[in-house]
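May I ask you to review the protein record following this short note?
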Amino acid sequence: MISYLSAALLALIGLTRLMTVRAGPRYLATFFLSMAVGLAVSAEDTVRLLGDELLPRLVTNALQLLAMRALLQLVRSTRSPEKPTPFWPIVLCWALMVLCYLDFAPHRLEAGTSGFQWRFSIVAYQVILTTYAVMCLVLFIRTLVRSAAGRPRGAFRTGLRILICAAVVTIGWALFSGLPSLWLEITDLADLDFMPRARLVGLCAMVLWVLGGLFTTWDGALRLARAWRRIRAVTPLWKELVAAHPQIALPVRHDLEFTLYRRVIEIRDGLLALRAHVPPQLGDWLRTPVDEPTRAAAELAAALVMREAGRSWPGNPAGPHPSARDESAWLSAVSSAFTRSRVVREVRERALAEAGQPSREEPTLKHR
């Protein structure tokens, strides 16, 4: 049951990665899904259902190597320029493991004897599996240590450190469970006691992988939620500006964080394009002092009216320009004032009267 639960959590993390990373490399998703399927196949209930222990182990080991290759791909993707990971090494490992399996599978009834565990195909199988896995994990740990050192405090850095611990424990698991012939020879463990202990070490490693994945995925999910909330906050302002200047709209891309960044740019371009239509007497229309976002919203409301009336005042100075880090929050405040502020409604009515246009009721803006 614990094996299936861990497999389900790993699969959930992998599927979450697939959904959040719609474009680009999906190495971590491949890792988590491969380990999830391998853990489910190697579970005691699955082995008992299949009635054979060697074939599930072969499938599990092949999936584990695929997961290790995904970690190696992740390491190589951090280099500039990115170095592609050739597929032939893992195919060669799989082929050699299958050949070894075909040699020792007919002798499965001899499993547990000294002659079987020191059979050349058994030893070769264990060395191939362990060498490839440990090599990939060592490279992964080196890269992850450098990455974690440069990250600010938070859930993501904590997740990276847990993943480092998971990789270290997995190396121990690979050296222990991948070389049973060696450990059965130098310890007093019986063959029937070895696999339960190997599974226990593997489950400890999987728990750490799950925790690390949850921490890093949770951080990404929070970041996406914040981006979505900010997109909704600036959408009314963005819709008005795109309607006034359709040319500011950039190509659509299905990425929340990039969409937010793109909309901030589009809104900034639209505001700059309307600066020449802001009436210079707008300050006199404000009956009471207002904050900067409300003033910017009032300027936009008046500029839209004057642009429609064909009136402009070139040479208007640019308004306040917050830092890139604070700009989305500032534009959210401007958008809120633009749709809800009584001051902005009064300025819009005053602009309509100044332009000689009839007053009209403010239309309801809906989030897109």
The chain has two domains: 2-222, 245-354. DSSP finds 15 helices and no strands in the chain.
